[in-house]
Amino acid sequence: MPGEDLVELKFRLYDGSDVGPFQYSPTATVAMLKERLVSEWPNDKKIVPKAASDIKLINAGKILENGKTVAQCKAPFDDLPKSVITMHVVVQLSPTKARPEKKIEDEESPQRSLCSCTIM
């Protein structure tokens, strides 16, 4: 890392609070940022990611891909000297496996169709 300019990043959570700032090498990947964010996640939050896959990072309106480096993700206006880059964090928890419901088949009862809606 000697001779390498570190990039200072902070992460804005869903409630407006920040985690960081932390300094990263421009060669650090988005996956590495997510792993650190999970380990540094504040204990007082209602929504807590269990793994890095539960987090999406957004910078300059773009969802960042895990394999990209910090240098590849920087927006052109982030090249200001000594500026802290804010990345927005979206937590999407992995759905838990629901227990299969026992089906009771009764020949006399009419079949009911079940539907459900999910609003995202």
From TrEMBL:
It is a lipid-anchor. It comes from the Eukaryota. Residues 7-73 form the Ubiquitin-like domain. Signal peptide: none annotated. GO terms for cellular component: plasma membrane. Keywords: Cell membrane, Lipoprotein, Membrane, Methylation, Palmitate, Prenylation. It is found in: Cell membrane. The keyword Cell membrane applies. CDD domains: Ubl_MUBs_plant. Residues 111-120 have a biased composition (Polar residues). Residues 99-120 are annotated as: Disordered. The keyword Cell membrane applies. May serve as docking site to facilitate the association of other proteins to the plasma membrane. This is Membrane-anchored ubiquitin-fold protein.
